[in-house]
Amino acid sequence: MDLRLKFNEDVENYEKMRPTYVEELFQDVIRYSDLNQGKRALEVGIGTGQATLPFLNAGCEITAIELGENLANFSAEKFSGFPHFCVIQSDFESVRLEPKQYDLIYSATAFHWIPQEIGYPKAYQLLRSGGVLALFWNRPFPARKDDLHEAMQHIYAKYAPSSKEPAPHTEQKSLEMVHTLEQYGFADVNFKIYHQTRTFDAPSYVALLNTYSDHRAFPEELRVRIEQEMIEAINHYGGKVELHDTLDLYLARKP
Question: Which parts of the chain sit beneath pLDDT 70?
Answer without folding.
Answer: 1-10, 143-145
